[in-house]
Structures are given as C-alpha cells and as structure tokens.
Predict the 3D structure of the following.
Amino acid sequence: MKERILRHLKTYGYITTWQAIKEYGCTRLSQYIYLLRNEGYNITDELVKSVNRFGESVHFKKYKLEDI
C-alpha cells in the first residue's frame, strides 16, 4: 500500500484521505505518510476547508509531495 501511495504522490503531486479510500481502499493514509516521511520523502500537509453536499463546513488534509 505504501508503494501505491508514493506512486500516486509522484504522479499527481498530492493525495487526500478520500482519494486514498476511493482509489486504493486505504483507510490509514496518515500511517503511510508517516512511513514515507521517515524514509526521507518531503511530504507537507495542508488543512483544506470546504462545504459538503449538505452545506456543512468540513475540513480535511491534503498531503503534497514536495521536491521529488
């Protein structure tokens, strides 16, 4: 799973929890981000605020792979 997450980051530049669940069935994205960071990958995170389909305010993290 870690390799899939890394491949996604290299291909698209970023990943969110929803993308990880939808594309890879991964419900523990933060664990793999932690492992990749420990391997030396420069992955930053950004708190994104949005509105869901019910008009409620929500927030989630967007992980971004910096210099490859």
Observations:
- The chain has a mean pLDDT of 95.
- The radius of gyration is 12 Å.
- Strands lie at 14-16, 43-51, 57-65.
